[in-house]
């Protein structure tokens, strides 16, 4: 699309994100849970976290195991109320499920009794779109994710990568303004994973949605994103670094990691993350 800004332009946009109304804003978010160890105590998973994602920006959030990445995504999606702080999507407070958002999680949520096409159109059906129209749109999306001819296959007859494609189409057919993904490709083998990451980038660059992408994989975060936010180890996770990724697009995730600029960013982020990963690892061993 010729209206898209250049890589530099997007990075400037990302830096200026705070000045323009963001697609998603988490401001001074705190999340406290009842403690699992002490029945009278609490556990502070997230402390004083402010994250803003601009319209059309792809932002990854990385951090040590168990630090609170999914908790932040759950708050942004409205699945979980923050203990305190503000959550806004496109300028409006998020109350209940965030209707501007589409979701994709580590395990796909395909309905095994429905064919691939029936899964893809499920959201449209629930929204009351006529069956004929829903199926036409569903077929078009099956084609966009490379699954023409598999409309009548059931999820259990499909590979992990194919099921992810169905899940992508199922989410994108609803045309969400912001996409929230929680380690969506972590269960896939390396080759399939890279194919899916490239697939995601192709789809993203065509429609340029805002993306909040949770991962513990630094390479994946850099290869996909305009910006990477690093979280500290818990308890009380919070952002400890933010890195603009100015690598040119379109990107091939298998190749881009060889570029000197990629490796420079990776070293810079790892410098910030290393201590936190060690802390997280030590905590998980306890
Ligand atoms: N409902 C809950 N009650 C108590 N503690 C919880 C609850 N949900 C999450 N936690 C704790 O909050 C912390 C953050 O969890 P969260 O799942 O957000 O981390 P994560 O970074 O996504 O983990 P992972 O890297 O394993 O995906 C963890 O210590 C977890 O045990």
UniProtKB/TrEMBL annotation:
SUPFAM superfamilies per record: P-loop containing nucleoside triphosphate hydrolases
**Swiss-Prot/TrEMBL keywords:** ATP-binding, Nucleotide-binding, Transport
Single GO molecular function: ATP hydrolysis activity
The record's listing under Gene3D superfamilies reads: P-loop containing nucleotide triphosphate hydrolases
The chain positions of domain ABC transporter read 24-256
Q: Which PANTHER family match?
A: ALIPHATIC SULFONATES IMPORT ATP-BINDING PROTEIN SSUB (PTHR42788:SF13), TAURINE IMPORT ATP-BINDING PROTEIN-RELATED (PTHR42788)
Query: What protein family is recorded?
Result: Belongs to the ABC transporter superfamily.
Name assigned to this protein: NitT/TauT family transport system ATP-binding protein
Source organism of the structure: Aurantimonas endophytica
